[in-house]
Amino acid sequence: MSHPSGATVLGAASFLADGGEMGQRIRDFDWAATSLGEAERWPAPLKTIVRMMLTTNHAVFVFWGPDLICLYNDAYSRSLGSEQHPSILGMKGPDAWAIAWDVIAPQIALVTSGQGATWHENQHIPIQRHGRLDETYWTYSYGPIHDDGAPNGVGGTLVLTTETTEHVFAQRRLQSAEARWRSRFEQAPGFVAILEGPTHRFEFANPPYHELIGGRDCIGRNVIDVLPEAESHGFLALLDRVYHDGVPFLGTAVPLTLIAPSDGLARTRYLDFVYQPIRDDSGRITGIFAHGSDVTDRVNASSALIDSEARYRALAEQLPGCAVFVIDESLRFVMAGGEALLTAERVPQDFVGRTIDEVFDAGTVATYAPNLRDAFNGNAFEVEHRTFGRYFLTRGTPLRTVGGIVYGVLAVSSDITDRRRVENQLRTANGRLADVMSAAEIGVWWWDMNTTVVGHDRNLARLYNLGDVVTSTLEQHTASIAAEDWPIVEAAVVNAKATGTFYIREYRIRDADGHVRWLGARGRVERDPVSGHDVLTGLVIDITDLKVLEESLRASDRQKDRFLAMLAHELRNPLAPLLNAVTMLEADPISGRDLAWCRDVIGRQTRQLAFLLDDLLDISRITHGRLWLERRDVSLSSIIEAAIETVTPVLNAREHRLHIDVPDEPLSLYVDPDRMAQVVANLLGNAAKFTEPGGDIELQARESNGVVEIVVRDSGIGLAADDHEHIFSMFSQVDPAAGRPRSGLGIGLSLVRGLVELHDGDISVHSDGLGHGSAFTIRLPALAS
To answer: What whole-number distance in Å separates Cα of residue 307 and Cα of residue 761?
Structure first.
């Protein structure tokens, strides 16, 4: 059998025809698995209501039977999220609506108990949708679906609903906005009132408005009933004109006389105000917004200013070197006069009628304006400022009415340009003196000898480790003085009390870390003319550098004495063999063997003397900048060969092993070859001298980043850590190892360093300590290819 296009064959369940997505889902659902059973067997009321639900575009939901089985249409499904749709179709009500069940269960129970329908507006029913628990609001009704065969004649509950979440949120926003503007108007410093309709009924009035009208009850009442006086003053006519014409009205210093309810007395106030029409969305005028300020004090102040102008003008003429100004609340000059105006090349007309912004530059305004505004709050002020190229001291005081209202400021400016010039000169001189004293490590202190408080400058505080302070107790002041020098300080104080003169040649102070500084002090006792007390004032100078220099000079003298002694020793050593040779030469006859021995001794010893004298001359030439180098391009290998040739006899005599490690590729230097060979030979000789016989000496060379390094390393006696710093100093000799006497003059390494530095190089030494050998490293610029 054929059917027309779009028809559905449903048999006994034809009431489920159509209904869009939900119609299809209801048709496909296995109802036999629920308490409703197969759809064909549903009771007639349920079929009827389901048919109605599927054919309407309104959101409809049905709870049916004792289990409150859920059915709903497409329109309702759109208010659900994927968390519920379509899973709650055919589900029991308590399971489907677990989140909101405590809210809706009593409402459904009311319907199913036969007590009739319910109605709920903007009910909060939370729904889990879109992955979150939404705060949602609904307007809905629960109505009974009659079924004679069901308990109480109610087979189910029909739910007709509309989601009102956006409406509720919009109302909240409106209420919040209204609360905000009401709060702002409540806090506004001026008066505010909102009038509705053509009769100008009060909808809102803030506290200043209530205060203005004497606390009269006004909300919900018309202006004419609250303020009958307003009609005679023309205010009512102004309100009518603004309401009908839509043109705002601005009033300035308009008088309003009101009868005070408290005592029945008439009082006149002066008002600045605006009447502003209020329009709805269509542009129709619905009311008037009135706001303004009570300017009675300002009006009275203006009158007071006018009355007092002549009095203050006379004052200005009687104050030499000053200018007198009267300034109103808008910071406008009402009066100006005085001798200081002429000094600044100004006349009163430059000020009167103008604001401070129009008269002064931005810098002066920034200084002046806050003080003037503070004066209108009742506070006097005093400020120094630079204006018109001169310095002024301005003192300001509030001007008050009889009632105590501040109506202006009286400002008196004194020209202090000359005083400031002298102060600046004094400040500059004091600054220079402080710089000099700080650079010279000089501190100043003063002590009232009847007290335990010492005053001082910051230089002295720094020297005495007192921190950034300018006073201290006597105990704090003396705490850092070395205990062993206390008797010296106490004796100086006793002498100062007796003679008036305080002097300490030198004493020590210790800081928190134990470091010692040397100070010298002198001072004088004078009688304070005010207190009558003796005050000891003194200077302290840091002489630590002088003490260090003094010790250095003493050490230098000791070193020089030791050098002279060693020089005498070194010069005397060759004399004994020479005298022996001379004695043998005087013998007659002398054998050929003895003659050869004499020649050998004389030659060897004179060469040793020549070497010694050459070293001394070289040191002198380097010290006085008179040593000339004959520099040229030479290979490093030639320098090393010459040095080894020089020291080979010494190495062989002490049976040392010399290890040479130099690159295969040639290295070139721009040096004096003889002097550089002398340097390397000197280091090798030193290594041989301070290494026990049979030791190892290494000569290593390498080039890196344009620098040639020559290292002489030995397995000898090594160096103590303290010797690293002064090993290259003139006449320096390290403490000899046990059983080893001092050797040499102490000029060899000083000569080496001098020659290396003349070649734009440097030299350093490293040792892991006594008994661990030493390594001397020379660094020289490599010759570019």
So the answer is: 91
CA distance 117 to 100: 19
| d(C-alpha 395, C-alpha 385), whole Å | 11
Q: What are phi and psi of 454, to 5 degrees?
A: -115, 125
pTM to 2 decimals? 0.34
Task: Say how many C-beta atoms besides its own lie within 10 A of residue 454's C-beta.
Answer: 22
- E-assigned strands of 488-592? 501-510, 516-527, 534-542
Return d(Cα 622, Cα 614) in angstroms, integer.
12
Phi, psi of 20 (to 5 degrees): 65, -145
Cα–Cα distance list, 25 to 73, 88, 763 (Å): 10, 12, 98
**Side chain identity, residue 488:** I
Closest C-alpha among 776, 775, 778, 772 to residue 720: 772
Give the Cβ contact number of residue 350 at 10 Å. Answer: 15
Instruction: Identify the DSSP state of 222.
Output: B
Encode pLDDT of 460-507 as tens digits. Answer: 788 788 888 778 887 887 888 888 888 988 898 899 889 989 898 888
| pLDDT tens profile 7-55 | 333 445 688 888 899 999 999 999 999 999 998 999 999 999 999 999 9
Omega of the bond prior to 86 within 30 degrees of 0, cis? Answer: yes
Q: Do strands 696-704 and 707-714 pair parallel, antiparallel, or not at all (unpaired)?
A: antiparallel
Say how many CA atoms lie within 13 Å of 10 toward its Cβ: 18
3-state secondary structure (DSSP) of residue 164: coil
DSSP-assigned states of every residue in 347-406: -GGGTTT-BHHHHS-HHHHHHHHHHHHHHTTT--EEEEEEETTEEEEEEEEEEE-TTS-E
